[in-house]
């Protein structure tokens, strides 16, 4: 019976501790995993279709609700607009590429890239259950890179094997800025924490290849790559302190 009562008291204490409501803003580290669905614009729309980003971030929120940190994301997609003509010089009259065995090679094209950068923003506790949730505005700057990923199935088609891929992959990168507007929610019981909103990228990129095999010239164009999307993330808050006041229920 004694052990049973101790167990009941422990459970009740645990429930109470996770049922507290804070009326103060606090310092908190926020580690998150996120996903974005994006539409391309500018020069990127001429090369790629819709894409996705999966990323992570580490941010610090101050008592005054300023949020700073670092973030990174992996970009991927399957709609390659350049792919319709990019490999024409390698194709036979029936639109196939011959592998080293005299058979039709299997070449798959997709989009790959990444973003890494720093971020800073401000949280406004409106329409929120506490002072650590609310409307969130954010800006960031970093490096955006993208290319056409060429998968040479079975690695038996020499024209797009090894370093020859680099002549077709359109590798491009450059400085990028981004903006985010959305809502961040850190629950009173610390169990449900997330954010969701709209995100925009403007990247000033250029080709990093010395020569493109399909055009037979070097691409020296300065590109403006745009992305528009919806972003959502799950937050793991690492609290450094307790709020100043609590209300229990």
Strand content: over 45%
Instruction: Briefly note the CATH topology name.
Output: Porin
Number of β-strand runs: 10
CATH architecture: Beta Barrel
Provide the domain count.
1
Largest sheet: 8 strands, antiparallel, barrel
The average pLDDT is 86
Integer-rounded radius of gyration:
25 Å
Count of separate DSSP helical elements = 2
Sequence of strands across the biggest β-sheet: 2-3-4-5-6-7-8-9
Helicity level: under 10%
Helix-strand category: mainly beta
* Text of the CATH class: Mainly Beta
Distance between the termini: 27 Å
Write down the secondary-structure element order.
Answer: HEEHEEEEEEEE
Write the layout of secondary structure elements.
Layout (H helix, E strand, L loop, with lengths): L1 H16 L3 E2 L5 E15 L1 H4 L3 E11 L4 E12 L29 E18 L9 E19 L19 E15 L6 E15 L14 E18 L6 E2 L2
Antiparallel strand pairs: 1-10, 2-3, 2-9, 3-4, 4-5, 5-6, 6-7, 7-8, 8-9
What structural keywords apply?
8-stranded antiparallel β-barrel, elongated, mainly beta, disordered C terminus, 249 residues, single chain, Porin, two-stranded antiparallel sheet
């Amino acid at each position: 019976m004694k052990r049973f009562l101790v167990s009941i008291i422990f459970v009740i204490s645990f429930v109470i501790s996770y049922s507290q409501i804070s009326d103060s803003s606090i310092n908190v580290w926020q580690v998150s995993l996120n996903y974005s669905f994006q539409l391309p614009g500018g020069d990127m729309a001429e090369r790629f279709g819709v894409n996705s980003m999966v990323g992570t971030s580490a941010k610090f929120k101050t008592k005054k609700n300023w949020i700073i940190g670092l973030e990174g994301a992996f970009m991927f997609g399957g709609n390659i607009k350049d792919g319709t003509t990019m490999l024409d010089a390698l194709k036979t009259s029936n639109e196939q590429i011959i592998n080293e065995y005299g058979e039709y090679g299997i070449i798959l094209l997709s989009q790959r890239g990444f973003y890494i950068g720093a971020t800073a923003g401000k949280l406004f506790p409106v329409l929120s259950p506490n002072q650590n949730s609310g409307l969130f505005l954010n800006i960031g700057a970093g490096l955006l890179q993208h290319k056409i990923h060429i998968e040479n199935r079975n690695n038996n088609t020499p024209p797009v094997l090894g370093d020859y891929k680099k002549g077709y992959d359109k590798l491009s990168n450059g400085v990028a800025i981004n903006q985010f507007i959305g809502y961040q929610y850190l629950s009173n019981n610390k169990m449900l924490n997330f954010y969701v909103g709209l995100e925009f990228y403007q990247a000033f990129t250029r080709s990093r290849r010395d020569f493109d095999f399909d055009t037979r010239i070097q691409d020296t164009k300065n590109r403006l790559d745009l992305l528009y999307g919806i972003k959502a993330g799950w937050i793991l808050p690492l609290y450094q302190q307790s709020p100043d006041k609590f209300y229990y229920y």
